[in-house]
Amino acid sequence: MRLPCVILSLVAALGVFAEEPADAVRALSAQLADDDAGKRDAAEAALLKLGAPARPAIEAARDAEKDPEAKARLVRVLESFDKPLWLASLAEGTKAAEVLGRPLMVIFDPVPERWANPLATDPRASESSGRKLKNAIDENVPVRSWLSGHFATAYLSAEPDIPVLEFPQAEGTGGAIVLFISPKLGVRHLLRGWWSAERFRKEGERALEFLAADETKLADVRAVARKEIAKELAANPHPPIGGRHSPEACSEVACILPRLLQCYDTGDTVLGKTGDEALKILHGER
Ligand SMILES: [Zn+2]
Question: Which domains does the chain have, with CATH numbers?
Fold first, then answer.
């Protein structure tokens, strides 16, 4: 009978798998209560870097942890494994990207976090395009796990006291600015406005190609993506419309893709810039 043998080797394999992260997690968890804040930060970053395979060991450490700050950090690390960790500044996002050895994806919301329309009957209607996009990602399990596994993520809201004009919020226009940034090479892709989680993921996967592309090949790789989008557009003509047509309210692919192509044109103007430089160009002084 071969089964016990299979089970034994499985148990052995799991044992090895579980033991190594457990040792590292024990040492790092102890460091989470260090007097030195820098050491606490470094330990949290190292736990993040261990990634999802260390989840059982980190859950055990969380359950055993007595120190409130250390426990909160362990909870935050666990949350980041299946939900993007939305850091609140470019500096924090860039630091996380460097520590994790991943690119950074930033949503810049030109509308202050506290902004809301008190007259809106549907709370969703008062959401800015940046928050709509963030919510669409957070509510879509495959997309949010994919995102948290490939990028460090940040969500920046405009300063609360600076008056801002919200632009139309349809896919690809005005509103939120999404940047895909390599800490070393700068911006490699840009999206504007709100996108469905699925369309966002598709462009996020293209962004990974742009991020991996050799500096001299970037324009070619982006040109290939443009051609694919143009082809999709040609295959999905807009159905006839009666009356007045509002592109902002339209979900037709033929309405969305021209805006996506515009994003590529806008993106070309900030390629290679740092996140700060790009936001200054696209949104003015923050
Ligand atoms: Zn339309």
Answer: 3-81 (no CATH), 86-283 (3.40.30.10)
Q: Please, which residues have CB within 8 angstroms of residue 71's CB and are 6 or more apart in sequence?
A: 62, 65
User: What pTM was estimated for this model as a whole?
Assistant: 0.76
Q: How far is the CA of 263 from the centre of ligand 1 (A)?
A: 18
Strand ranges, E, within the chain: 86-87, 104-109, 152-157, 177-182, 186-192
Please tell me the distance between residue 51's alpha carbon and the centre of ligand 1 in angstroms.
42
Q: What is the pLDDT of residues 237-254, one digit of tens each?
A: 888 877 666 766 677 888
From the list 164, 78, 68, the residue with the least C-alpha distance to 113 is: 164
| pLDDT at residue 83, as a whole number | 83
d(CA 107, CA 91) in angstroms, rounded, equals: 14
Report how far ligand 1's centroid is from the alpha carbon of 255 (Å): 5
The Cβ of residue 89 has, within 10 Å, a number of other Cβ atoms equal to: 13
In the sheet that holds 104-109, the strands lie side by side as 86-87, 152-157, 104-109, 177-182, 186-192
Q: How far away, in angstroms, is 243 Cα from ligand 1 center? A: 12
Convert 104-123 to b/e letters by CB count within 10 Å (16 or more is b).
Answer: bbbbbbbbbbebeeeeeeee
